[in-house]
Write a structure and sequence with these properties.
Layout (H helix, E strand, L loop, with lengths): L2 E8 L13 H7 L2 H6 L3 E8 L20 H20 L3 E6 L5 H9 L5 E6 L20 H5 L5 H4 L13 E6 L4 H10 L2 E4 H7 L1 H14 L4 E7 L21 H14 L2 E7 L10 H13 L6
Parallel strand pairs: 1-2, 1-3, 3-8, 4-5, 4-7, 5-6, 7-8
Helix pairs in contact: 1-11, 3-4, 8-9, 9-10, 10-11
The protein binds arginine and manganese (II) ion (MN) (2 copies).
Catalytic activity: L-arginine + H2O = urea + L-ornithine
Cofactor: Mn(2+)
EC number: 3.5.3.1
Amino acid sequence: MKKHISIIGVPMDLGQSRRGVDMGPSAIRYAGVVERLEQLDYEIHDKGDIEIGRPGKDEEATLGNNLKYLKAVTKASEKLAESVDEVVAKGSFPLVFGGDHSIAIGTLAGIAKHYDNLGVIWYDAHGDLNTGDTSPSGNIHGMPLAVSLGIGHPDLTNIAGYSPKIKAENIVIIGARSLDEGEKILIREKGIRVYTMHEIDRLGMTKVMEEAIDYLKARNIDGVHLSLDLDGLDPDEAPGVGTPVLGGISYRESHLAMEILEESKLITSAEFVEVNPILDEKNKTATVAVALMGSLFGEKLL
Ligand SMILES: NC(=[NH2+])NCCC[C@H](N)C(=O)O
Ligand SMILES: [Mn+2]
Ligand SMILES: [Mn+2]
């Protein structure tokens, strides 16, 4: 039987302040993702996009809680959680395209209930561990990992009616190079495993991925979600992102990371987020995302 992948697009741009990231799912499709994965003998079902809707003028205010567009993000997260939930329930692999990283709130809400002990690999320049209290921006795309740990506004932590979605000791962050003070405190307090750029430079990507995999296996995880923020890569190679940070993971290292994950056979769901075609150069970032998906699903040169 052919393995089955279900694509869900999430044209969400309300979790941050640079317009255009809502076109990410189109850019990724345009870069040929379906054709590419079909060649790997997967059966692909593109479920289309989640409807986000435009917030009214009265919704733009943060209502004093430092959570921009809380209502609209909550609504979209609920819809996404339902759609992802259906995909997992029927035994297909959920592959979600963003949209900004706030969508991980809904993705994880739909996935985590199907696992007793879900692992998460968070491939990102950032920790996304803020709350309304610690965020310097009020942008919800800087909060999804905290929300999934059950930390943050109850409207967000209770998406799909349960909380927390994941455990701190089952998370590995890879590529971090920009963390806010509150995020650093949370990382230390919860003992979250983080491979910063320092460790990637020092150990090399092979060792980092092998350690990450061993770490998750030792936690007896029964599935692993890959949440890949394209800003984890260096902005020279993935320029189409809203919050670029210099000194990132290279395209080659990222391919290697995806290949090692594929060999591990641990990944049970994935999302690729923050692709913003307005900020991109000739759809380069979406093309990089699709190439990485190729490796994640087993593409080989020979
Ligand atoms: N998913 C992202 N690109 N997150 C960037 C977050 C940036 C910053 N830490 C903030 O909370 O505003
Ligand atoms: Mn990021
Ligand atoms: Mn992120």
